[in-house]
């Protein structure tokens, strides 16, 4: 907090809005879109009654329409979703497929994530993309002409961290989080775990936290390994991780959980990716930068991934 001329303290924390980051990304995407021979097309499947999923679908539609991308939303019964996905894989009218989860929750949703083919998996959740993410392989081919697709929400968070300067651009690409300690409160298979892996693969020391405990993701001492390794931190807890973290990223569903800010390191960067507010209102008393939501950046990354799919397809057809 800063002292003003009238002997009162005001927070120095800066709030960064997702829309400001998304605008930059969408401007970059528009350049790539202008180079394509036709407008890319995306089909979305909504097979639940989850308000957050519907809102995500609505945001997708608005952003697609505003940026010259063809979008169609199909609302289907969840028992029929697999059949529709298989059909969409064969439908040349669509370049990408997105499913708005959750559908059944648990392992059945993990199975459904494998149905969209690699050529149309705009969310980057199929096995081949996830394998490359964890193994820190950033291209699909040895010639490095086709970039791999990364999950939208984890990549959106990385783009936000880059925007606010957490990435050290003096260091070589791929190592620019070296020296950063980051806590991620969420270890889901769709967001939290891949996010921790991506951060660690970029050089950070990451503490991944869920109800089962703490895991550390790193590339070893001096980031001397090609890909991250995971170590269980027995006896560690959230409080201890917060106290040493330069960045705190939280995505716990439900409004009951709040990050205990008395344990947050002074000047930490705090990012909320839950649809609920994981940080209390007075987080600005401890954080140097606070990002209250990331939704608009996630949608921008969705379009970026769609463009990547089209570019990869063109590259394959040209060889």
Give an overview in words.
It is built from 9 helices and 13 strands. Helix 1 packs parallel to helix 9. 41% of the residues are buried.
Question: How many helices does DSSP assign?
Answer: 9
Flag low-confidence runs: none
Radius of gyration from the alpha-carbon trace, in angstroms: 20 Å
- The side-by-side strand order for the widest beta sheet comes to 3-13-12-11-7-8-9-10
Series of secondary-structure elements, N-terminal to C-terminal: EEEHEHEHEHHHEHEEEHEEEH
Structural class: alpha/beta
Task: Quote the average pLDDT.
Answer: 94
Summarize the amount of helix as a percent range.
25-40%
User: What is the strand content?
Assistant: 15-25%
Largest sheet: 8 strands, mixed
Number of strands: 13
What is the global morphology?
globular
C-alpha termini separation: 58 Å
Question: Could you give a short description of this structure?
Answer:
By secondary structure, the chain is an alpha/beta fold. The protein has nine helices and 13 strands. The longest helix has 24 residues, at 295-318.
Q: Key features?
A:
three-stranded parallel beta sheet; eight-stranded mixed beta sheet; 319 residues; single chain; alpha/beta; 13 strands; 9 helices
Write the layout of secondary structure elements.
Layout: E1 2-3, E2 9-10, E3 14-15, H1 18-34, E4 41-46, H2 51-66, E5 70-75, H3 81-89, E6 96-100, H4 107-112, H5 127-134, H6 152-163, E7 181-185, H7 192-201, E8 205-210, E9 213-218, E10 229-232, H8 238-243, E11 247-250, E12 269-272, E13 289-291, H9 295-318
Parallel strand pairs: 3-13, 4-5, 4-6, 7-8, 7-11, 11-12, 12-13
Antiparallel strand pairs: 1-2, 8-9, 9-10
Helix pairs in contact: 1-9, 2-9, 6-7, 6-9
């Amino acid at each position: 907090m800063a002292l003003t001329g009238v002997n009162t303290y005001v927070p120095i924390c800066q709030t960064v809005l997702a829309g400001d980051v998304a605008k930059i990304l969408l401007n970059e995407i528009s350049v790539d879109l202008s180079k394509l021979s036709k407008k890319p097309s995306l089909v979305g499947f909504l097979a639940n009654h989850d308000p957050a999923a519907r809102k995500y679908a609505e945001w997708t539609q608005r952003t697609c329409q505003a940026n010259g991308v063809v979008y169609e939303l199909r609302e289907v019964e969840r028992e029929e979703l697999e059949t529709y996905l298989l059909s969409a894989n064969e439908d040349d009218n669509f370049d990408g497929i997105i499913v708005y989860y959750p559908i059944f929750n648990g392992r059945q949703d993990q199975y459904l994530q494998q149905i969209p083919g690699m050529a149309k998996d705009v969310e980057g959740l199929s096995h081949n993309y996830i394998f490359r993410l964890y193994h820190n392989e950033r291209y699909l081919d040895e010639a490095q002409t086709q970039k791999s697709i990364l999950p939208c929400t984890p990549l959106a968070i990385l783009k936000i961290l880059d925007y606010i300067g957490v990435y050290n651009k003096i260091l070589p690409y791929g190592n620019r989080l070296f020296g950063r300690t980051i806590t991620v409160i969420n270890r889901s298979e769709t967001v939290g775990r891949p996010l921790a892996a991506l951060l660690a693969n970029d050089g950070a020391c990451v503490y991944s936290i869920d109800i089962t405990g703490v895991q550390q993701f790193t590339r070893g001492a001096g980031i001397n390994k090609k890909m991250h390794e995971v170590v269980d931190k027995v006896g560690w807890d959230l409080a201890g991780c917060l106290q040493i973290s330069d960045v705190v990223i939280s995505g716990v569903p439900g409004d009951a959980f709040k990050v205990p800010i008395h344990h947050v390191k002074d000047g930490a960067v705090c990012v909320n990716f839950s649809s609920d507010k994981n940080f209390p209102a007075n987080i600005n008393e401890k954080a140097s930068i606070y990002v209250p939501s990331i939704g608009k950046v996630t949608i921008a990354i969705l379009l970026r991934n769609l463009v990547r799919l089209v570019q990869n397809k063109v590259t394959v057809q040209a060889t």
